[in-house]
Structure prediction request, 889 residues.
Amino acid sequence: MKYAIIAKKDMPRWFDSLKRHGKIFGPRKKEHQYVFRPIDEFEEMSLVYIPTILPPKKYYFPQKEALLKFSIDPYKTDKAIKEFEEYILFAVHTCDIAGIQCLDVVFNDNPADPNYLNRKEKTTVIGIECMDYCDSHASCAAVGNHVPRGGYDIMLTDLDGSYAMHINSEKGEKLAVGKSYIREMNATDRARLKKAQDEKLKKFHNEFSKDIKSVERAFDDGFFSPVWQDVGRRCVGCTNCTAVCPTCYCFDIADEMEMNLNDGVRTRTWSYCQMDDFAKVATGEDFRPGRDGRQRHRYYRKFKYPVTKYNKYFCTGCGRCTRTCMAKISLVETVNALLDNKA
Amino acid sequence: MSKAKPKVAFFEFTDCEGCQLQVANLGADLLELTKAVDIVNFREIMSEEGQEYDVLVVEGSIASKHDEERLKAIAAKAKVIVALGACAATGGVNNLKNLKSLEEQKKIVYGDVDPVKDAVAAKPIDAVVKVDYYVHGCPIHGPEFVKVMQCVLMGKPYKVPTYPVCVECRQNENVCLYDKGQFCLGPITRAGCNSWLPNNGVPCVGCRGLIDNPAANAQKDILEKYGLTVEGILDKFTLYCNAQKERAKYDKEFKS
Amino acid sequence: MKTELSYQELLKTSPYKPVKAKIVKTNKYTEFEKLFRIELDGKKDLEHVPGQFVQVSLFGVGEAPISVCSSPTEKGYFDLTVRRVGGLTTAMHKLETGSVLGIRGPFGKGFPLDAMRGNDILIVAGGLGIVPLRSLIHYILDQRKDFGDVQILLGCKTPKDMLFGEEVEAWQKRADIKFNCTVDRADPDWKGNVGLITSLIPGASIEPKKTYAVVVGPPIMYKFVIVELLKKEIPGHQIIVSLERKMKCGLGKCGHCQIRGVYVCQSGPVFTYDELRQMEGECHEGECHV
Prediction:
């Protein structure tokens, strides 16, 4: 079964059936925003939502995780995590799935990262296609992430009274087969799906003032652009932009001790290039001291460096950095300013 | 391990003893800590008073000549000195009294009598003795105190975060208070409290002090965007951040 | 170290797991610099290239990147010379012979030995820069006939800051290398040159086409030394430097060491001047574009 149909009224049933495959995390309303949280009942979720405060990254690359257990005397090291648990990410936007695909590349790159890979092996991704812009900050169409492009086990597309299911892996297949209320797609359904997706595409447009190749060229030439001074002057250094990014993966390593002061764990925690001592060495030399250089670095890590290294944009277009910025630094405006500057 | 446990003594000066209360409230962590150290003086939890100690934990600001002399005397016996809480670490709310001259302060508080003839301007303890470890906050955040004590016992430095409270607040997935039209000192306040106030929906009041390298100009822009006045912001600094040298950056930037 | 692990093997092992090692000798050169001779568990060889670094682990304190300062031609041990500046290095200075620590690595790209072989070598060491260069010097001296003329220019702040004193004296006495040194500030016993290291370069006899200049020192030094080397017409790809950056993981992931798109812990710390120029604007040392 490659494509299937499930009626909306049967979603709670299906959701309940997923529980025995693992813990389920899905989008939930928090005040006027949304967050991924453990979900017990289908109704707790909001399936139409603005990207969550933090991306689902926190489940496969947590804010803080143990890398290694150790004892000082006698010298001993041990695995920090003995077993990784199965879990399901439910209703993930295509932009956030693109984020997962980016980190997959990074953490598979030699030398591969065991914690990440172990967690990813236990992850099931059930995506949901956005049928319209979530809000005005998204720039997913510019990077092509407004449509599903793999990276999921099942993708749900809203067809009014039902969802189309694109089953994209064996794992996904297992979750969908043998359910009386999930049936294979027929020709009529296919036509409906195509129509819905065509209608949807009309609503999306390139959010940047030029195409993505021009953006890439603007970054090639824009390293010394005054745009960065402007952004740096406005930046307050709160680090929110890097905290909420689905493709930021910088980290710090530190030891935490138990009270016996002999046993402990080596942990990795999120660290951001916007932090004051991110590039500062023990002697006090800071190799990226300005907020302008730090913001520029963030943008180049989305639109230039990974393109060179992995042939991939690390901006997923989710719009989180713009939404979260207190200084109202907008990613789309910054990129457009860089494009104008070049012209 | 047969090594003698280090002796730890808590002393307080001008303060509310709320930070010591936070230590007393640590519960299981405090019991764990006592496996590694002997607490010889801590009036919130015990009546004995030991006068021999290795680690001196000082709470409270210095507000009189007598305070200064007493601190010097008790510090002389210690190998390591820990400043516990905002009053000891930065002067905390006691700095408020420095807004007026000593004479004016006394008049307001005591009227015509003068029971504290040797009063001085309030100051943090590092104005009198060398401090090895700082536990910021009003009150302190318990888990940070435990971490600092571990560093003390292992003889390694504790690095107070130089990044702002926003780092912890975002990782805790709080809705930004600015988004709700509230004024919060998080973007310019040292982290380390695990964004304690914002976690509970309350804006940060800056009790841990300003970050080392604040972007005063950008902060001004932000506040103006949110419809706040320069006076309003500077007013917010009064409670905890007045005495800090980083404050000068704001005065310069905001008043220009 | 770069063996490809299968996924199953990966699950069992971890690139973050340090290997147990033991300090077998120490030598305190100055108040701030101390040498540690280290033996890996099972006396395994580190198999490094001069210019590479390791992550030294002290459990409970953390990790710090330290350049290896012995040559891979010395078997059964390796040397680290550590300046006491941060948390880990301060804790490390308290260690003595017999102490146990953890080692990850070696990491990064070392000096381009294959390209250098057969050419003249000009070594310019400023301050602590002599530490990684000692590895290269030992390597070259152990295989002296493989290289052309070898000159060593050494600079430090005062005579007291000079590291590896006895070795330096031995280098001075050797007939098969030219050695020259200078101090910024002399003391009454100092008989040698006084002045910045840049002042030694114009007088050095160099055949630029067949010379590899290897320069290691503080960022400010690169700026001026490279100008002098370019005046001598040494080609950019034959000017070699080693950069200091913050390094946490050593695996090209954590991001702290990045200069533009380059992870210094993997693509460096050794770079050619031509490579530096590509990183212009993000790299203090690279601002020496002339």
Q: What stands out?
A: The longest helix of chain A spans residues 187-203. The radius of gyration of chain A is 22 Å.
